[in-house]
Design brief:
The chain is α+β, with helices and mostly antiparallel strands. The chain folds into two domains: 198 residues, no CATH class; 141 residues, no CATH class. Strands 1, 2, 3, 4, 5, 6, 7, 8, 9, 10, 11, 12 and 13 form a 13-stranded mixed sheet that branches. Helix 1 packs antiparallel against helix 5. It is globular and about 60 Å long. About 7% of the residues have low confidence.
Length: 367
């Protein structure tokens, strides 16, 4: 990625936030925070502080909260220490927070501005597409399943977004669960991060052929099919895929037993496919967050990453894969609904909900 494209992308994100705030009738001056005007250089995009996105999140969160009524604000906000911050899931269920359904048009713009501060363009498109699938499910199920509503996605803010104290926020509903933690007004943890899709491919109607998570499926299948017999014997850990991701919605994800094929045993082209697959997950988030995450993956050693597969190799057959490194776990499962229902997640073993960042922060704070 060259500097010109980085600068253009950063400017586009700033313009999006300015537009959302402006249409909603909120002045940036009212938030007492200013968007950074510096261009995002290559080195800044690779900063582990992710300062650019942190400022955008604080600005967007402050504007969103200012737009809410006292009753709405009470529903949307929690103490940073509240256990609700860890109560995440990706299934249809009762949730706390405030749903987009209960916001007016200006407030929804501001909520989307906050979402746009955490996600990159790719992630925003995926999130919006996944949410829209609830309307298709509602039509398919004709009331026989849970409540399906593209606006039943909840926004929650934990702590004071306008201070330098630790705070966080979440957008969550069916098949979207995005968690962010900010420490000292800059450092960002962005996991657990879950995207799913049901249907994985729309099979009928006006949107027939739509696939919300196509690269996540196609690149992995390309990789498993590129392996020779010896490599495949190591990569395939089971002929039967599990019915769901193994890490589920646990508060803390533990490393799974190392299994599969080590990246160091892949050929160059195969390694490129694997890294393209990893990049699909990384690029869901804002560019500086994504770059910092990819830097951590590289720092731990690309040769230490394992790729494991279970199930069939052909489209339409139940299948599962995981990519595990020393510090992270990516899981993908497509088994339910005749292998047309995808769950994907990125977990950081030490950084989910900002655990390592907070530990360091509190240690330094109490010296």
């Amino acid at each position: 990625m060259n500097r010109k494209s980085n600068d253009k992308r950063a400017e586009g994100r700033r313009e999006f936030l300015h537009y959302a705030l402006g249409v909603a009738g909120v002045s940036l001056l009212e938030t007492r925070l200013e968007l950074p005007v510096f261009p995002m250089s290559h080195s800044q995009l690779h900063s582990t502080d992710a300062a650019h996105s942190a400022v955008m999140m604080s600005t967007a969160a402050g504007a969103f909260l200012s737009s809410l009524s006292p009753d709405q604000r009470a529903r949307a906000t929690f103490a940073f220490e509240d256990e609700q911050r860890f109560d995440w899931h990706f299934i249809p269920r009762a949730r706390k927070g405030i749903p987009f359904k209960d916001l007016d048009s200006a407030q929804r713009l501001l909520g989307n501005a906050l979402l746009g501060a955490g996600l990159g363009q790719r992630g925003l498109i995926r999130a919006a597409t996944i949410m829209s699938l609830d309307a298709i499910l509602r039509e398919m199920e004709q009331g026989s399943g849970p409540v399906r509503d593209p606006e039943l996605y909840f926004l929650s803010i934990f702590g004071d977004a306008r201070s330098t104290k630790p705070w966080g926020w979440r957008v969550e509903g069916h098949h979207v669960a995005l968690n962010f933690t900010l420490v000292e007004g800059k450092t960002i943890a962005s996991t657990p991060a879950f995207f799913g899709a049901n249907p994985a491919e729309v099979l009928q109607g006006a949107r027939k052929g739509l696939r919300a998570l196509a690269p996540e499926e196609d690149l992995a299948r390309l990789l498993i099919k590129s392996l020779d017999d010896r490599q495949r014997t190591q990569a395939v850990v089971s002929e039967k895929a599990p019915t769901d991701i193994l890490s589920t919605n646990l508060r803390k994800a533990e490393p799974l037993k190392p299994a599969g094929l080590q990246t160091s045993k892949l050929g160059q082209k195969q390694q490129e496919i694997l890294m393209s697959l990893v990049s699909e997950y990384v690029a869901r988030h804002a560019p500086d967050i994504a770059a910092a995450r990819l830097d951590r993956v590289r720092a731990a050693g690309l040769g230490n990453i394992y790729f494991a597969w279970a199930g069939g190799f052909e489209k339409g057959q139940p299948h599962y894969y995981r990519i595990q490194g020393p510090s992270f776990l990516v899981e993908y499962d497509n088994v339910q609904n005749n292998a047309n229902h995808i769950h994907t997640v990125w977990r950081d073993f030490n950084s989910d909900f900002g655990a390592d960042l907070l530990a360091l922060h509190y240690k330094q704070d109490h010296r």
